[in-house]
Design brief:
The chain contains eleven helices and ten strands. It has 258 residues and is α/β, with parallel strands linked by helices. The strands form two sheets. A five-stranded mixed sheet has the order 2-1-3-10-4.
């Protein structure tokens, strides 16, 4: 190998090392990640909030959604979540009592609101329910989902439980109830108000925002799980969720806050 070729190779190696070093320095280093388990009603709002948090903190947010009861069962079976955002206060309190959370981390992040929705924009869903002019009503499973429990209370309040019972379609969660409604598989569906807000441009329909005194308060709590106790990203995310700007966003998404 002559001197020129040897110098050329050495030069190329040097340049490649410098280039790699520059790329390494310029590429952002992620500051960690957090795994969130969230009730289905809050999935779309959480995706928006997660994007903001990721941008501001250079972290990764991983989200798993489902009914509150199902997520509780997954946590008890050892699912590696850091934070649980439930659709009620009962399951977070149970996890706390059972020693699966960081004591003192539980708080209410939202108050859920319930709507009765029909795909037909010309119809009044409340009147359809009272008059019995429907075949099927979709609702989240009352055994697993607080929004399903609230839906049954509304039927009781209106005195139509017996009539409605024949046409009830029990879904795993409010997300599935929403899918049934927009697909036209049911005439009526009990949904989270936030679902109505997020999809009103796609599916106009008609909705009745049910008065808060028709059903027990849907107090939605978040809690830091034991598996996330040493995860600073998880701790910071809960602080982020409590901040006033984020509370205002949650209200805009169709919830109340305390």
């Amino acid at each position: 190998m002559n001197h020129f070729v040897r110098c050329l190779i050495i030069g190329l190696i040097f340049v490649s090392q410098v280039f790699c070093d520059i790329c390494f320095r310029l590429s952002p280093t992620l500051a960690g990640e957090v795994k969130l388990a969230v009730a289905s009603n809050f999935l779309k709002p959480l995706r928006v909030l997660a994007e903001i948090f990721e941008h501001d903190t250079n972290t990764v947010v991983r989200i798993s959604a489902g009914s509150t009861g199902k997520l509780y069962a997954q946590i008890k079976q050892g699912a590696p979540f850091d934070v649980f955002l439930a659709a009620n206060a009962r399951e977070p309190a149970r996890l706390e009592n059972e020693g699966d959370t960081v004591v003192g981390s539980r708080f209410a992040y939202a108050l859920g609101r319930l709507v009765l929705w029909t795909r037909d924009p010309k119809q009044d869903p409340r009147q359809l329910l009272i008059d019995g002019h429907y075949k099927h009503i979709a609702l989240a499973n009352p055994k697993l989902a607080p929004y399903g429990q609230a839906s049954l209370k509304v039927l009781e309040r209106l005195g139509v439980s017996e009539i409605a019972h024949q046409g009830l379609i029990t879904c795993e969660n409010v997300a599935q109830a929403h899918q049934f409604a927009v697909a036209g598989n049911v005439e009526l569906a009990f949904l989270a108000y936030s679902q109505n807000i997020f999809t009103k441009d796609l599916y106009r329909g008609s909705s009745w925002l049910i008065p808060n005194d028709y059903y027990p308060k849907i107090l939605q709590e978040a809690v830091l799980l034991k598996s996330g106790a040493n995860n600073q990203v998880a701790i910071n995310f809960l602080k982020f969720l409590k901040s006033e700007p984020i509370k205002r966003r949650i209200v805009a998404f169709g919830y109340n806050v305390e």
